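Design request, tokens follow.
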């Protein structure tokens, strides 16, 4: 079967005439060839591996600048920029052994620099590393990144928080397009599965220059898994078991490529029972089931590169309402529950010209969300359809200056078909135009940009004016100008300083403008305000980092001032036995940062110690604290790396202690939280038994079965603890 598929793709590829090519040899410092080095051109989604002589080759390449990365376990990454590739170019590489993580190419920023050259500090984490921590969901894994937290409802629903901002203030990108899934709702989770995702990049701060409205607090940018290397076929199967929820996660993927064509597909299924707390009780109806399907096809030659991807995600989520009552390990959700169907279609294309290129990203997202109260007849049914586009033109380089100009926009419709309405039927249109430039000299980089945006929102009237659930028609337009300025320099060998100042904005969402009723899960009667203004912020970031062969240290600090911050405040009135809350605005500020180090003592090459501390404080102008601000956290990990004879390679063992502090700085309707420490263990590696090779990892999370309640848990008001001890076993086979 493999030979047939490869032959089919090679036959199609043979009809295409090779033009420009690049080849070379990869060796170590002793001039010994390295076999199996991954060589990848991210812009073309094109990869290969060196043979037993350390040789590699690419053909059908455009005659322009290309970034090529060389990665090999145990060696430092090499990223090379090749200008004006000739008909037959040669590039030989020497890799040096190192113990620190690779210097990845950052996709979420404008110029796709490697991290060490990037003006903005961006957190990059592979999904493989997050999965090695034994977390049950994607958002739970993201919350282990310094500066990132989650607002959770049980184990199934998690909303990302970046430096104290969440909801519509954090933008999520997948497959190169923005995700729209009614993220205003407290119980509306991320809606993404980690299977088929290669890595995540976190921009901690306003990114409106590149992404428009709703990137005021930051961006989570998910990179899909890479296609197979040229002229190969790969099959992969992974299975995980979770003791606490008696849960299972299964994934099967297939992919193949030729020099020009590439194809992949992956199916996944997750199922979990109610989670168990430290005393052995299960939290009723926190069970959930998830089916996910991803596929993609790509083509590239010397003039053109394009990738079409599709992702289908189906979520069946139980909503915990009665606390700890029925005790069962059933995985069939009970009422109330949510049913969510999400379709994501993306087209990412690049056109190459002599000295420039054009990037085109098109996306279509259909989010179908139903909520069932006590029957299979949906009480709430919302259909959100979003088309978005992003066009960027990379102008010819002028000396040391790189320039990008672009337009970006979105057309979105929201329709209701259930008995209840959270928000009205509406149409939203975005349009933005921007330009940014990057100037490098010696060890310095200066980057600046400017952008204008317009968002138009129009809604339909619904119900009888003055009654609960009724909406008046509105027609609003919001304009915003934003700019950014960043500077990076090397203060000394291995010591880097970054300074960034950027503004961002967020237009009010439909819930804030139109709410008129009891909001889900809050026991509050919320009243929207159609006169709300645009939130506008300016944030200053400083990053100082030192890195040599055995020691890394970083300090990140930020100050974020937000004009017209939107929040709810009690009026003192009571409607339908619930306190009435109005949406109002006030200026606000958030400040804090992260500090950490990674120590690898010589000659103990197998030992690593990592520690990080994160803090954020949020206040309104009236000195009151902002809601949903995560507690300070101190995370410590000891990691060892080893191999056992010939049957276990790339082995690792970790001991992690994560300490969360008291959170007493709370807003008016929040309650304070006590601190806690969790102990986590991990073990794994690549096992070889005869001809069978597979990856395995075993994790024990909350190993001491600590009873605790996270500050950002939405079950905190009912005094329901988070998950107790959880043993996770995972295996991964490359078939």
């Amino acid at each position: 079967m493999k030979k047939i598929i490869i032959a089919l793709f090679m036959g199609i590829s043979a009809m295409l005439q090779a033009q420009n090519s690049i080849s070379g040899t990869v060796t170590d410092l002793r001039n010994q060839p390295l076999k199996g080095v991954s060589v990848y051109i991210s812009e073309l989604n094109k990869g290969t591996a060196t043979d037993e002589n350390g040789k590699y080759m690419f053909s059908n390449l455009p005659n322009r600048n290309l970034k090529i990365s060389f990665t090999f376990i145990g060696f430092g990454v090499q990223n090379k920029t090749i200008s004006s590739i000739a008909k037959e170019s040669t590039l030989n590489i020497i890799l040096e052994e190192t113990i620190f993580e690779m210097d990845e190419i950052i996709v979420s920023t404008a110029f796709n620099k490697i991290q060490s050259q990037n003006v903005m500090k961006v957190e990059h984490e592979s999904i493989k590393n997050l999965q090695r921590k034994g977390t049950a969901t994607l958002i739970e894994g993201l919350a282990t990144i310094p500066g990132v937290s989650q607002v959770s409802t049980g184990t199934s629903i998690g909303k990302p928080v970046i430096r104290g901002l969440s909801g519509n203030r954090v933008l999520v990108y997948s497959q190169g397009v923005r995700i729209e899934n009614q993220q205003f709702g407290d119980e509306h989770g991320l809606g993404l599965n980690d299977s088929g995702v290669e890595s995540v990049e976190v921009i901690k701060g306003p990114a409106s220059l590149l992404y428009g409205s709703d990137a005021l607090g930051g961006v989570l940018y998910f990179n899909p898994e890479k296609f197979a290397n040229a002229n190969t076929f790969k099959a992969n199967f992974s299975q995980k078991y979770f003791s606490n929820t008696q849960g299972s996660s299964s994934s099967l993927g297939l992919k193949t490529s030729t020099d020009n064509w590439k194809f992949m597909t992956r199916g996944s299924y997750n199922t979990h029972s109610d989670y168990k707390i430290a005393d052995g009780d299960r939290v009723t109806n926190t069970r959930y089931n998830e089916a996910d399907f991803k596929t993609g096809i790509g083509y590239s030659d010397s003039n053109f590169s394009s990738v079409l991807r599709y992702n289908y995600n189906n979520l069946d989520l139980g909503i915990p309402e009665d606390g700890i009552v029925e005790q069962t390990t059933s995985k069939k959700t009970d009422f109330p529950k949510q049913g969510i169907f999400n379709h994501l279609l993306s087209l990412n294309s690049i056109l190459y010209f002599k000295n420039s290129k054009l990037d085109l990203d098109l996306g279509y997202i259909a989010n179908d969300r139903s909520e069932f109260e006590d029957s299979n007849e949906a009480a709430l049914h919302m259909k959100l359809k979003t088309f978005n586009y992003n066009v960027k033109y990379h102008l010819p380089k002028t000396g040391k200056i790189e320039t990008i100009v672009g337009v970006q926009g979105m057309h979105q419709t929201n329709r209701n078909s259930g008995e209840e309405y959270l928000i009205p039927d509406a149409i939203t249109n975005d349009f933005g135009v921007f330009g940014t430039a990057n100037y490098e000299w010696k060890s310095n980089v200066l980057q600046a940009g400017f952008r204008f945006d317009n968002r138009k929102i129009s809604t339909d009237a619904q119900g009888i004016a003055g009654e609960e659930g009724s909406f008046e028609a509105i027609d609003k337009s919001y304009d915003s100008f934003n700019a950014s300025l960043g500077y990076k320099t090397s203060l000394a060998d291995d010591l880097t300083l970054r300074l960034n100042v950027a503004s961002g904005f967020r237009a009010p969402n439909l819930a804030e403008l139109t709410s008129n009723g009891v909001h889900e899960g809050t026991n509050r009667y919320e009243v929207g305000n159609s006169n709300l203004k645009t939130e506008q912020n300016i944030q200053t970031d400083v990053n100082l980092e030192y890195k040599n062969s055995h020691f890394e240290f970083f300090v990140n600090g930020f100050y974020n001032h937000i004009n017209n911050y939107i929040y709810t405040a009690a009026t003192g009135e009571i409607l339908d036995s619930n306190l009435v809350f109005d949406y109002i605005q006030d200026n606000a500020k958030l400040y804090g940062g992260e500090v950490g180090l990674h120590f690898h003592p010589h000659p103990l090459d197998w030992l690593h110690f990592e520690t990080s501390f994160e803090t954020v404080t949020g206040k309104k102008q009236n000195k009151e604290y902002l809601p949903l601000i995560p507690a300070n956290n101190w995370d410590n990990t000891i990691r060892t790396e080893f191999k056992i004879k010939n049957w276990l390679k790339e082995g690792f063992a970790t001991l992690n202690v994560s300490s969360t502090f008291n959170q007493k700085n709370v807003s008016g309707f929040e309650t304070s939280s006590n601190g806690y420490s969790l102990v986590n263990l991990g073990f794994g590696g690549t096992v070889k038994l005869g001809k069978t090779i597979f990856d395995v990892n075993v994790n024990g999370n909350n190993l001491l079965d600590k009873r605790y309640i996270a500050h950002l848990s939405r079950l905190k008001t009912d005094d329901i603890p988070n998950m107790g001890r959880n043993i996770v076993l995972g295996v991964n086979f490359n078939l």
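Comment from the thread starter after seeing the answer: thanks! Helices lie at 2-14, 127-131, 138-142, 208-211, 510-514.
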